[in-house]
Amino acid sequence: MDILPVVIIFVAAVVLIEGIFLFFSMLSRIRNPEKRRIAQQLRTLSRQRDRLFAGSIDITKKKKELSSIPWLDRVLSRVRRLLPSERLMEQAGSTHPIGVFVLSSVVLFVTGILVFNLLTKTLFIALPAGVSMASLPFLYLKFKKSRRTKKFGEQLPDALDLIARSLKAGHAFPGGLQMVAREFKDPLGGEFAKVVDEINFGLGIDESLHNLTERVDSPDLKFFAIAALIQRESGGNLAEILESIARIIRERFKLQGTIKTLSAEGRLSAIILVALPFFVAFALSIVNPKYITVLTTDSIGKTLVLIALIMMIAGIFVIKKTVQIKV
After folding, report:
1. Structural element, H or E, at residue 251
2. What share of the chain is helix, strand, coil (3-state, %, to 5)?
3. Between residues 181 and 50, the one the model is more confident about
4. For the purposes of burial, counting CB atoms within 10 Å of the CB of 212, is it exposed (0-12), middle (13-18) or buried (19 or more)?
């Protein structure tokens, strides 16, 4: 066990050096925002072309780069199926390759094991702590996806009203999409700009809207796409349908705000119940350190801490399911 900290420090140093190299490499690539935007559009159109001509063989097709570090790109290419999907990266709006998050996960894993092994002198607690820290970059992707989807949903009613007004004014449906792409900020403006680019490059409106619903995980957006597709097939007043969808979305937002207000007490109770044990442990470590160190030095104390953490996590999930009401 004495050699373990030395090995972990060595691995952490190697990974840290590679991470610094990757950081400066990515910094030089994203310094020009216009160049980054054009490259993102080209990657999106390339993926659409690959799906349309999946059965054909293209000798000029370039393998998607998973990392700017050559050896890491080769390693990740061999375990591509174990990595988060490209769809998650698009939905999160990430401009970095998956290698950045994998490398960050490795650094946090090694750091977590090293720190908790030095504090607790046992891998029984250090290993789960390292795994928990390693999941943070991918939880960050999930968080970015959720926040981006929420912002998209907040912008969607106004976008639908703009498309409806453009249709009433005599503009074509693609023209309304172009107005939305020009008038709205990201994420909605950027996603609709991709739709307009796909249509301009020859992709059908049906396929472009389908791609949009795949990039953005929003049920309201699916209602808009289905309404547009049905209107193209059977006809009807699309402007009135879009205005009705926008009105329903706004009413649901009001209902969600009411539910959030009524469940505020439960969410506050959950925060207090989760923070209280850590606050008490911190206070006891200052007032009477010998009293609290038994939990980290004695084997029974470590077991009790682990059981308490598991029960606390289970309690968090139960409280979350109780106060979170889907509308």
Report:
1. helix 238-262
2. 80, 0, 20
3. 181
4. buried
- The larger pLDDT score, comparing residue 324 to residue 165, is at 165
* CB distance 15 to 72 below 8 Å: no
Residue 112 pLDDT: 85
Predicted local confidence at residue 325, as pLDDT:
72
Q: Which two tokens stand for residue 109?
A: 């894993």
How many angstroms separate the CA atoms of 276 and 178, rounded? 52
Q: How many CB atoms lie within 10 A of CB 325?
A: 12
181 and 196 Cβ atoms separated by less than 8 Å: yes
Using an 8 Å Cβ cutoff, are 77 and 134 in contact?
A: no
- Torsion sign across C-alpha atoms 248, 256, 154, 318: negative
pTM exceeding the 0.85 threshold for the entire prediction: no
Domains and CATH numbers, the chain: 3-144 (no CATH), 148-254 (1.20.81), 263-323 (no CATH)
Q: What average pLDDT does this structure show over 217-236?
A: 87
Three-state SS annotation for 73-113: HHHHHHCHHHCCCHHHHHHHCCCCCHHHHHHHHHHHHHHHH
What are the tokens at 278?
Answer: 């850590």
